[in-house]
Each structure stands twice: as structure tokens, then as C-alpha cells.
């Protein structure tokens, strides 16, 4: 497959769908609450960590915390067996089965081992709970707001104005020459040898494609063309949506680091990138001069998909 036929080979890990989001129950709150006695509950602590057992997020019984959802609970969806799933910000509790293996991990470190249901529930709960933590007061007049619609909205009781979970869109792009080379770069704050593809936030009044062209020009000085969409992934750290692209660049054009975010960049061959992928990721103790992102990031899926091209 040539670069012109470049597609993602797999759905990014955090984009997997494992449960019905059941958005109708957010407005039919009575129906959502009616399912509470049989519902399951995901606890997320202040460090955005959850309890994991055998590749799944540990879900407790919702009824153990009360007869109805707490005010700050968020509705996460409906599971395959019909039970509702909710999330709360709370200290973690051990599984009911004391023999069950369990560990405390966050989404960055556990996303690759989650099943589809856990990945969706934890990503959604993390995003919503982080938003609630920072949206307790109206951005208009500073009044205290209240959670409504099963945690999917907040309202100013004085004015009736609603606020909804905020998402910050960002582009992430693999620049390649259309043949055998692609650009990888290291941010100034990253340790030596840690490289990835280029990313940046979308500005007001800007399209995704325009953002790709601008960000790459600002960060490494390259002029790119043929910007094409690949896929997207929620990134709730704290509230981003990563929108993936690939674009063509000219290896003869010199790099210039214009905004101070990039410490170094280079063109790497497909064989060099394949070798780096085989050595693991950023968490590896490999002595390789090139360490790449872990599988939880859409960056890894984009790089792997490009590297797999013949």
C-alpha cells in the first residue's frame, strides 16, 4: 500500500465503543435514576486513577453509596446486560472478591490492557469528572452552578444558563515525503530520545486542516500539503480531542524551530521507525536512540500504520 492509501489499521484505543452511551437517559432523568438500584459504579480518585482487575475497571454496586445517585455522579451509559453505569469522584475500594488481583492505574498506563467497555467508561468518566471539577462556577457571573442531566450539564440556578462539557480540539499529524521517510520531533520538555509526531491546539476560526499547516510551520518550519484525515481519539488529560492527519513535506526544506516548543526534529526512514517500534515505547529501558509513544496514544497508531506500509 502506498502513502496515498494511508489509513489507520486499528481503531485508536480510547476510541473504542463497548457500551451504549444511552444519551436519551440524560434528559429522562427519572428513567436513569430508576436503574440505580441495579447499576454499577466506577470510582475515579483525585489523581484520575481507577482500580483494575484482570484488564477490566472494577465496578462496584451503585446502591452501596445510597438510594439514589449522588449530586455529583455522572451517567456513563448502559451495559450489554441492560444495567446502567455511573461514575463518581471517590476513594478507590477493593473488589468484593478479596482473592481477585487488583491494582491502581490511570488511563495513560492502563488503556492498552482495558477491554472495550472499560476503555470507554474510564475515558468518559475521567473527562466528565475533570470538567465538573473546573466548572463549579459560572464563567459569566461567577455564580455557583449545579450538575443536571445526569452529570452532562451544569446550570446556573439564578439565570437558567446551561454549560456543557468543554472539549479542546487538537490536531496531530504525521509528516512524510510520500515514500520512505517521516518526520519525528522531540519537545523541549521531553527527555532525550523521546520522539513523536507533531500536534497542536486548534485556534478560534480555524479549520483542522488549516491548523495542521500552521502548527507544522510554527513548530518546525516546514510547509506541508495534501493534508488528509486519519481518525480521532478522546484524550481526557484534561479535556482534549485528538484529530489525526497525515501530510506531505519536502525533506529538502530546512527545519526552523519558530515557537520554542520543539528541541529537535529529523527525517527517519521506515526501517528506522520499524526498529524503534519493535523496541517498545517511552517506558522501555531500551538503549535505542529513538523511543516512541505508547499504544494508548493515537500517535502510536498513526506511526505504526505508516510504518506498516509496503
Automatic annotation (TrEMBL):
Q: Where is the signal peptide?
A: none
Q: Which gene does this sequence derive from?
A: nudC
Q: Keyword NAD on this protein?
A: yes
- Which reactions are catalysed by this chain? a 5'-end NAD(+)-phospho-ribonucleoside in mRNA + H2O = a 5'-end phospho-adenosine-phospho-ribonucleoside in mRNA + beta-nicotinamide D-ribonucleotide + 2 H(+)
Q: Tell me the GO BP annotations in alphabetical order.
A: NAD+ catabolic process; NADP+ catabolic process
Instruction: Provide the E.C. number(s) assigned to this enzyme.
Output: 3.6.1.22
The record's top EC class is hydrolase
The UniProt record lists the keyword Manganese: yes
Cofactors per UniProt?
Zn(2+); Mg(2+)
- The name under which this protein is listed is NAD(+) diphosphatase
**What keywords are assigned to this protein?**
Hydrolase, Magnesium, Manganese, Metal-binding, NAD
Amino acid at each position: 500500500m502506498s502513502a496515498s492509501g494511508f489509513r489507520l489499521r486499528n481503531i485508536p484505543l480510547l476510541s473504542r465503543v463497548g457500551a451504549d452511551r444511552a444519551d436519551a437517559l440524560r434528559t429522562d432523568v427519572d428513567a436513569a435514576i430508576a436503574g440505580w438500584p441495579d447499576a454499577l459504579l466506577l470510582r475515579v480518585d483525585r489523581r484520575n486513577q481507577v482500580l483494575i482487575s484482570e484488564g477490566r475497571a472494577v465496578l462496584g454496586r451503585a446502591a452501596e453509596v445510597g438510594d439514589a445517585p449522588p449530586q455529583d455522579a455522572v451517567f456513563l451509559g448502559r451495559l450489554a446486560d441492560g444495567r446502567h453505569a455511573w461514575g463518581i469522584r471517590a476513594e478507590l475500594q477493593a473488589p468484593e472478591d478479596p482473592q481477585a488481583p487488583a491494582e491502581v492505574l490511570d488511563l495513560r498506563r492502563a488503556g492498552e490492557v482495558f477491554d472495550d467497555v472499560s476503555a470507554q467508561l474510564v475515558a468518559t468518566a475521567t473527562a466528565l469528572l475533570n470538567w465538573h471539577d473546573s466548572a463549579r462556577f459560572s464563567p459569566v457571573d461567577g455564580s455557583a452552578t449545579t450538575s443536571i442531566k445526569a452529570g452532562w450539564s451544569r446550570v446556573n440556578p439564578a439565570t437558567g444558563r446551561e454549560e456543557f462539557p468543554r472539549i479542546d480540539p487538537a490536531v496531530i499529524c504525521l509528516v512524510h515525503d510520500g515514500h520512505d521517510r517521516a518526520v519525528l520531533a522531540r519537545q523541549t520538555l521531553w527527555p532525550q530520545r523521546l520522539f513523536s509526531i507533531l500536534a497542536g491546539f486548534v485556534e478560534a476560526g480555524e479549520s483542522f486542516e488549516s491548523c495542521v499547516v500552521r502548527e507544522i510551520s510554527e513548530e518546525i518550519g516546514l510547509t506541508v500539503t495534501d493534508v488528509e484525515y486519519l481518525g480521532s481519539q478522546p484524550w481526557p488529560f484534561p479535556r482534549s480531542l485528538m484529530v489525526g492527519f497525515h501530510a506531505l513535506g519536502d525533506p529538502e526544506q530546512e527545519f526552523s524551530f519558530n515557537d520554542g516548543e520543539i528541541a529537535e526534529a529529523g527525517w527517519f526512514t521506515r526501517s528506522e521507525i520499524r526498529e524503534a517500534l519493535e523496541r517498545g515505547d517511552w517506558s522501555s529501558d531500551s538503549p535505542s536512540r529513538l523511543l516512541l509513544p505508547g499504544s494508548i496514544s493515537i500517535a502510536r497508531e498513526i506511526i505504526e500504520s505508516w510504518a506498516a506500509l509496503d
